[in-house]
Model the fold of this input.
Amino acid sequence: MANVGMTVENPLVEPTLDRVAPPAVLVVFGASGDLTSRKLMPAIERLALRRLLPSGFSVVGVARTEMTDEEFLDHTRKMVDEEHTDDDDDVQHVWDAFAGGGFRYVAGDYGSPETFVKLREVLEDLDRTRGTAGSRLYYLATPPTTFETIVRALGHAGLSRPVSEGAFVRIVIEKPYGHDQRTASELDAVVHSVFEEPQVYRIDHYLGKETVQNVLALRFANAIFEPIWNRRYVDHVQITVTESLGVGHRGGFYEQAGALRDIVQNHVMQVLALTLMEPPATFDADGIRDEKVKALRAVDMYTEDDVMKDVVRAQYQRGWVEGEEVPGYRDEEGVDPHSETETYVAMRLLVDNWRWAGVPFYVRTGKRLPKRVTEVAMQFKDVPHLPFAVSQAEGLDPDLLVLRIQPDEGITLRFGAKVPGQAFRVRSVSMDFFYGAAFLEETPEAYERLLLDALVGDPTLFIRTDEVQQAWRIVDPVLRTWDEDDVPLARYEAGSWGPHEANLLLERDGRHWRRP
Amino acid sequence: MSSEPFPDVGRAWTIGSWEADEVTVAQVEDALLDLRRHEQWAAVRTSVLTLVAVVDDKRSADIALDVVHELGARHPSRTIVLVLDDEDEGASGRGNLDAAATVHVLERNGTAVSFEEVILRVRGKARHHLYSLIEPFTLPDLPVVVWLPSSLPSRGDPLLAAANRIVVDSRAVAESGGGGDPLGRISTLTRRLPVTDLSWTRLVAWRSLFAGLFEGGLNRPFLSGVREVVVAGNYGPRHLLGGWLLARLGLSPAIVHLESAPHASIRLTASAEGRMGRFVVERPSDERVIESRIDIDGGPSLHQSLPLQRQWPAMSLARALTDMGHDEQYQQALSGALLLRGPRTPRAPSSTLAGATER
Done:
């Protein structure tokens, strides 16, 4: 299904080596934008340096700014140069290869059919001169408001289906995918009126991260974790996705989004799904995605009362982060001085299935917290009976398994141990494992990995339509309740671990947030 | 050996070393423990394997050690370098063993990893019982990889019993005059345990680039209509590349020709749907550039010139150590290479070999 048009397997491909992308044109909408110069183009350069792009591989940039092909190439090269540190000679080779007609630019409005007529001509020309054979990867690196326009236009221009046998046409769509469940469905309807689902690659760069994939390795390559990965042993789970940064220059965008849409609906839901899911029968795209969807479907739906009780939203105020005084959210550039947008969300989720019934999942995410951390912490139940005097076990906390996703990727196991000496005293100790220390292999950057996957036709690490729907199903009632009711917006000082209300959320259950 | 820095290793430094002549294994073990005990940096050791390098002289030992230092940054391991000394124990009346042990720490992204190396200079009869020296030093339960930079083990070498994997270099063996038919001997070895041939590892760029020419379906039909393949290169590389194509594409040895050349190249001529196509991957000169060409009658003529990263010995070794299983593709390439290298003994020829030529 995924490899639309791929008929016979290539007998020379070796499963242990990275696959070279087939000849194709990468069409980037939003070519003059930030994402293109900071992420996409450096990824293209890295792929070329690793010899994973075939001869003839070409890039077409589409944007409103007027530019010639040469100007686009020069502009891109300049932006990429700022990002990397690679050997200059090698880099020169890569750009020389593109300079021979492999870098094209189409200026125009996304709403104008003319733009797409021009695009079509360029694509046909590339097929003739560079042997790209009708294969295209469209990449929507544009603001979400343009997604539908571009998708429809590609359909009208007849650019959404492969024109020859063996060719492929795929589209990569950046987040946010919809603004809520309704708009996500509407976007999906438009996308599906033009593209088949297997052509659609919804990207969440979190899934391209090595350590997110390591959650799967840890869970399903080891027999010792799976038996305790359930309600019998797990007391509760804390998922933390925090940043020390504020909104920076994205104030205008963030005002429309907020932490729930920006982080919870996508990154948090992906990490949650990988933590909750049952072992897949196969490790292919649908094997894994089927289980993720099943897991998300089991997440309990919030009622309005639940939202009031189990979800905390908050906004940062002035404070000190990493030794610097930082402004409050309402004082940030592009932010309404009376803004009610949340920069922090804490929530308590329940999962209705045999594995997880009764185990609360506490999620928190926010900006301007003390440090950047992504982790899943699984706290195990207390021992049924502690055969020591309380005084002997004062420093003893319940066992804990932490999957650290960033920045110091690895796992930590906390358990009790005897303090050396005559007296019998027990304390918690922790054992760390750093992935980076065990295998110091170069790991590809998330965008590099995902871009190659999309070119080769492997959708495993992309989000399927039903996954998006399930993620919105969980988040949507919260958005609605916040819109409709007068839900208080809590405040927290920048550089703190969040508002008092978020602490109460756990204290109510007799628990507390761990300090990551 | 290499003055350029190994890419992206982070910061490495030595936190302690120890050296003594005429020692026992127990003394070396104690010294290692001592070195670690007093260093907070060495409190946590993260290791993925024990690497054993066997070399013949001081010079080879230094070369191997350079590689190991660079490697330590990628595959934290305990390394044991065994230097086989020609001197007889009886000659000087000295003990069997001199030793040096060093503990290094590498810091990268704020994470410190410690790794150790032990150099054992072995004299006299102990040279024939190396396994007994290795066992005490292997890390518990982790794979033991034996690396022979330019030699091959003899058939019954007990060293093999201690190894989970053996790393050799068919080209280096041939160049050091290491005795007839290295590929044949490696093939025998693969029946016993997983083998990595660094000559094969170094060909990754050629293999992946050549395979890439047939991605996307458009050129794939040509793989069913191969007319001729010419592979050039040194002893080892050319046989393996030729053997790989022979085996993976199911070709007759009669249409696969091998040529001697300083750099590897593959030229394949094929037809599909009445059109002829020529597919080439080559390194044209000493410059670090690898080129690919596709030339199809009536179709676009495509040429690509790409940087070929410097072949660090440590990089090849690091890559080799990433996969711990049998390498199917290498096995097939090796079987193919044996067909192409021609008969070794007068009794071996079979009809399929008749057309295989080395020109």
